[in-house]
Amino acid sequence: MRIVVTGREGQVVRSLIERAAYQPSIELIALGRPEFDLTRTETVSEAIYAARPNLVVSAAAYTAVDLAEDEPELAHAVNAVGAGIVAQAAATVGAPVIHLSTDYVFSGEGDRPYTETDPTGPCGVYGQSKLEGEMTVAAANPRHLILRTAWVYSPFGKNFVKTMLKLAESRDTVSVVSDQWGNPTSALDIADAILRVADRLRTDPAFDAFGIYHLAGSGDTNWSSFAREIFAASSNKGGPLAEVRDILTAEYPTKAARPLNSRLSTDKFFDVFDWRAPKWNISLAQVIDKLVSS
């Protein structure tokens, strides 16, 4: 099965490359700049047409949440227009598209996990651009699977886990917000789930359960408790350790508002694909092990 994934350096892309290496039936092609650029739509279609994939994974995105408040046009061009072009090109070559989205499409209100049918209501430019991307993808390719995820980390790129470990190298104490809740999600688990979906599409030509799904780590926590677990796992492996001081969101102002509630219910994904991510602390320990040992 030939799978094209957009982007080369993102956490999910690099995780997919690692996981697909153990599946000889998968040929994974990562498309990235300069020959593939979501702001230059002609390069998007040409690259996908040339690859002739059986499945397209739309992972490349504009993810600078705060900077998006100053660059709304660029965020829209990449996350909405570019995503739609990817989905349209996939449809043209007869391939379904898996598109990665985010918890930021919700307002962050309430204290229960969001389901796929809950009303959306982004509170910033980034979330709005990703919500528009969901719409353009769905309109461009009826065979779409939109996977909303949250709090993504991995051994690759920039993420909260790596930031905490880096801070602990020079600080005894770090301050972390305690009133934002969500599901820490390993990009390696996202990759496993995507490959699970790919196998289902390959073996079930009658599959028709396309639409929106939530895909996130099992269990929820807040950022400060997440940080404590990071340091506990790191310390167990001989890595850096720091104490965590709880602060409120109001004490850590950012240009773009962060959702207080990013919890996502993954029951629908489990019902359809019979797959659920491990408990978030188990996946975290595996990533910490990779980071500390390297």
UniProtKB/TrEMBL annotation:
UniProt-listed GO biological process terms: dTDP-rhamnose biosynthetic process
Keywords (A to Z) from UniProt: NADP, Oxidoreductase
Co-factor requirement: Mg(2+)
GO molecular function, one term: dTDP-4-dehydrorhamnose reductase activity
InterPro entries to which the protein is assigned, alphabetical: dTDP_dehydrorham_reduct, NAD(P)-bd_dom_sf, RmlD-like-bd
EC number(s) from the headed UniProt entry: 1.1.1.133
Cofactor note: Binds 1 Mg(2+) ion per monomer.
Reaction(s) the record says it catalyses: dTDP-beta-L-rhamnose + NADP(+) = dTDP-4-dehydro-beta-L-rhamnose + NADPH + H(+)
Class of the enzyme per the UniProt entry, highest EC level: oxidoreductase
Gene3D superfamilies hit by this protein: NAD(P)-binding Rossmann-like Domain (3.40.50.720), UDP-galactose 4-epimerase, domain 1 (3.90.25.10)
Cross-referenced PANTHER family: DTDP-4-DEHYDRORHAMNOSE REDUCTASE, METHIONINE ADENOSYLTRANSFERASE 2 SUBUNIT BETA
Summary of the function given for this chain in its UniProt record: Catalyzes the reduction of dTDP-6-deoxy-L-lyxo-4-hexulose to yield dTDP-L-rhamnose.
Protein name: dTDP-4-dehydrorhamnose reductase
